[in-house]
Records
---
Amino acid sequence: MSVFEKIKVLDMSHALAGPFAGMLLADFGAQVIKVEHPHGDHFRPLLGGAYHAAVNRNKRDISLDLKNPEAVGVVKKLMVESDVLIESFTPGAMDRLGLGYEAAREINPCLIYCSISGYGQTGPYHSLPGYDVVAQAMCGIMLCTGHADGPPVRIGASWIDMGAGMYTALAVLKALLERQDSGRGQRVDISLMDTALSWMSPLIARFSMSGELPVRAGSALAAFSPYQVFKAKDGYLFIGASTERFWLALCQMLGLEELTRDSRFATNQDRVDNREELTKLIEQALASRFRDEVVAGLRRAGIPGGPVLDVGQVLDDPHVQQRGVLHHLEHPDLGPLTQVKTPIAADGEMPLIKTPAPAVGQDTRQVLADLGYEDGEIERLLTSGAAAAPPS
Amino acid sequence: MSVFEKIKVLDMSHALAGPFAGMLLADFGAQVIKVEHPHGDHFRPLLGGAYHAAVNRNKRDISLDLKNPEAVGVVKKLMVESDVLIESFTPGAMDRLGLGYEAAREINPCLIYCSISGYGQTGPYHSLPGYDVVAQAMCGIMLCTGHADGPPVRIGASWIDMGAGMYTALAVLKALLERQDSGRGQRVDISLMDTALSWMSPLIARFSMSGELPVRAGSALAAFSPYQVFKAKDGYLFIGASTERFWLALCQMLGLEELTRDSRFATNQDRVDNREELTKLIEQALASRFRDEVVAGLRRAGIPGGPVLDVGQVLDDPHVQQRGVLHHLEHPDLGPLTQVKTPIAADGEMPLIKTPAPAVGQDTRQVLADLGYEDGEIERLLTSGAAAAPPS
């Protein structure tokens, strides 16, 4: 039994960040039990089930209605034998259920108790519910993303949620190592807002030094030119000629040698100042060329660049296919489904995907039996609505 | 001595992802030595030094010119006593220096050897250099970000780099736990592209199920309305009325009760279909109101929302200030500088920031002396250019 197979995780979280944290630990080999309301995690219906399926694999599932005191009793029994608990209720909700940290610590002083929230367990906004998009608004990234003359733009996926899940998993492994010395668990407090701020740290450091704010520049980096997305005959691609060598190689590749003698484009700063004209000239040269041809040329010449792919094209990319990061499985309810492995290749292997995301309460009976509940008690819990399970 | 204080990390990485990984470990208490070329990490000049300062604190610094075989010898000596090595050269470069994984494993079979690259150590693109913005283009996020009728948009900060650093730190802690059982180190292979794909996993799962591609919708979530950024009298704010209850509360708050009886806005789908008209009506109501007033109203009413802040305003936010996630220090070269703590609060404390990012080679002499080099040898290494240090 590997070190992770001995680790028991009680995943009481929902939506995206907490489940992703639990899934990372499950992928590493931990025994993760998802505790789910009989109505199901409210993210189950989103994207046709894709959200839930993407972040809950490799887990078992017990369904409990925590409004029922008997269900709370089941959670307390699970706490006794768990190493880790993850929850993402609005701060205060676990306390009101009698499952807050102080209660949990009395039950199991070795428990690593992780709470994920929008703003953290402290501070003026701590009791507000958290949303990835609100953290995007408040951390500064929305005002760094988009066009200088346009409105703020949302990152088109909930990456702060994913990051908060990663910080939680990191906190758990850190706490497991520290517990070996101390013998004690920890209270871990992760927030979407703190996560986003840590990713803004270079821009925050600059502002604190100079008062300078980032410039929104569409697909470009404001400091370099040409360094942005361009349109070719059949699609977009990114070209990043951030150095003199790349600029000269690009002009040669596109048959635009005359630009290297054009005073409007003599230095990077000139090219930044005349970005619009330069973009037009480069897009003229690209208008008759296929994107993949240009990308192949960039790669041969060592110029940073790549195609701008849609999600479907990503799955067709030969590198992505051969890298082994994708896993295709048959989900019992959703059908064929592509999963992305946890992208930590250790000695050549990424963690295995053994089971798809569970159905609500699919393991309720077994988990209760493992806890020592007799058949009669289990049926009573199911009948009273404290627990739920699919028809057996 | 805590468990992390015994962990020695050789951070041979540069730019953003690798240094961030090393910094996370340094923040946890590990002894991290940054190995830096005498000319300095090429990210040192960016953003006036802010990039480097944000991801290299709590480290010591030895400067070595790895083109010099004596410098390579120093690294091999450091490998003997290190637990972890992090490098982010283009795949193959460490091998050409005689410092690749096979060589390292012979020197120290317990070493956890982490490589970070654009595409990973395997697959058709493995030898291409990696850039955050290229991974953004190729993972699909650029085509999910921006406006439906506009070009792809870059996320205005290098978040994939940050994520790759976090996966590296997670891989290191995982490997440390596994090493306790196995007695052996690991070869860890992290890439920007895999990191980005893992964050795209919900959208990849959906595409694989249904062929559906994400819709670019500016600051909005396409599925809900009103759920986007709006303009108030003095700035932008996000309002996310994703449920009927939020919608009714919003109309009441803004004095727009007549909209709840307007057939164009009867259901969420109606409001999505008539987003443009609805946006106009809401912005009319907001035109005379101050942003912070509206945000306070949203919070009182329990409606998801928040201000769209710039990086400077973020630092003035009362919650951010009171949460304790910021650390103000005096950097010896850069002056006053705000750092973001590693956002893992454990038992109420985030990891301490003890020392600012080091100067190039500031600890060269001491690190060499600790390795057993005599004063004469150290001077010879400095004179030959194998090592570098500021004037003593």
Note: The CA atoms of residues 5 and 30 of chain B lie 5 Å apart.
---
Amino acid sequence: MPVLLIVLDLGGTFVFAISGAMVAVRHRLDVFGVLVLAFAAGNAGGITRDLLIGAVPPAAIADWKYSGVSALAGLATFFWYPVTKKVANDVLWFDAVGLAFFAVAGAQKALAHGIDPTMAALLGMLTGIGGGMLRDVLVSGIPTVLRADLYALAALAGAAVVVSAHLLHLHPMVAAAAGGGVCFALRFMAIRHGWRLPT
Amino acid sequence: MPVLLIVLDLGGTFVFAISGAMVAVRHRLDVFGVLVLAFAAGNAGGITRDLLIGAVPPAAIADWKYSGVSALAGLATFFWYPVTKKVANDVLWFDAVGLAFFAVAGAQKALAHGIDPTMAALLGMLTGIGGGMLRDVLVSGIPTVLRADLYALAALAGAAVVVSAHLLHLHPMVAAAAGGGVCFALRFMAIRHGWRLPT
Amino acid sequence: MPVLLIVLDLGGTFVFAISGAMVAVRHRLDVFGVLVLAFAAGNAGGITRDLLIGAVPPAAIADWKYSGVSALAGLATFFWYPVTKKVANDVLWFDAVGLAFFAVAGAQKALAHGIDPTMAALLGMLTGIGGGMLRDVLVSGIPTVLRADLYALAALAGAAVVVSAHLLHLHPMVAAAAGGGVCFALRFMAIRHGWRLPT
């Protein structure tokens, strides 16, 4: 797997693992439950993508770095929760960065496995929203990604840009920057200005 | 994949995608959440079946038609919800048709992949109930398929008929008609007469 | 698959299927819902493990014995619930035995598929807690395994012992006995003395 993909994947994992751990702490799970939820939120999207494209065993299983990064995020959140909480606003930003990383990495990995372009964009979205969905289901809420302001749509837009850049034979780095930028910008504007889709 | 299987699979996907979209609208998800739930309800059963029998990437990922059909069902439901709601009774019928399609397609695809007969019947049932289970879990309810009148049992009966017909070397078309008929009839009678299993 | 693995796997399946069936009865599902939840609780951990390590179709799908054992457990629980309930305390013990079986079998199967040691231990844990997680999510609760006294940790400790024994080239039987013993003992002491992790 190219270095770019690994960096994006691990970065997204770290960010989402923190979001999982924060939800776990808020639901008063013990330290181990926090670690499990950190792993689930950080890796469920990527694992699902890998199973669906036939990349078995999934990167998050074959490579200990993913669980290492998740455990780090989980422990940091557990022991410094008051600190983490205070910067909750930043976490929304942070989460938008993770979303952008995952949407890009998901789309690129699907393309690399020969998935057709439309589905590669959808898999990029799934990689972005899968972890958050499992996180919320495990604490028995309706996934916020299904309600939040332009959340899944931002991921899809970013992934679609990556796929389009690929079809135009642009460099993967350019594709990643453009797709990630679009995803982050959309999500950022949605948070800032309360942009929402009709319900 | 033979044409019969594709027609059954896409038909079931459309019907279940509508059921997913209706649940999403009722829970006030935005238009994108509606699309995600439509896709989940329409495809989770088939995707799970394909992962379990080793048909990777699953049809719903390899072929854009499945997400196309799901998106169509989701948008139709979102924009014409009042209409869809009025015909809610018909939807129960409709859903029974989808269940029959999926139970048959699931069992036939499992047989085609060399899964043993007993498990092929169970996989037909899983294909039929998987989408509805994910749909309900995502909006954090107990899956109605686990409670509803003869729901899973109708799917299993239909799938078992398909498997038996296969063992008797009957034509797949005959097997599909017989199995689908049994599944639909059982479910229809259960709705009509309130047949239930003991609790 | 070696006999030891099959025995452990089927034993764990039986025990967890009972726990799934008990939860289903308590939520007033019909007999079929009880069977589905018995199967889910008894097999979700092992199926997830098999999908993740690329052992497709998973043992629980390829081999009818797993669903047979699950159905047996489900029916027994459904028809003799008052009896089963009275021995609820024993069930906690019983469940600890199932956890030990699954943690050991999960780690050994992952090692046999060439998964690296750290991840094999985590997969052993996942095999142990996966079924209980799905069981609780399906009746829309927060998985008790994420809160219960040293539950996931006991599974991880047992799996880690198995992996360590493997690295030391000890006999699989010895590894299984040691790992299973550690898992059971930890869980038993946690129940008995209310040991918990910090929250």
Note: Residues 88-112 of chain A form the longest helix (25 residues).
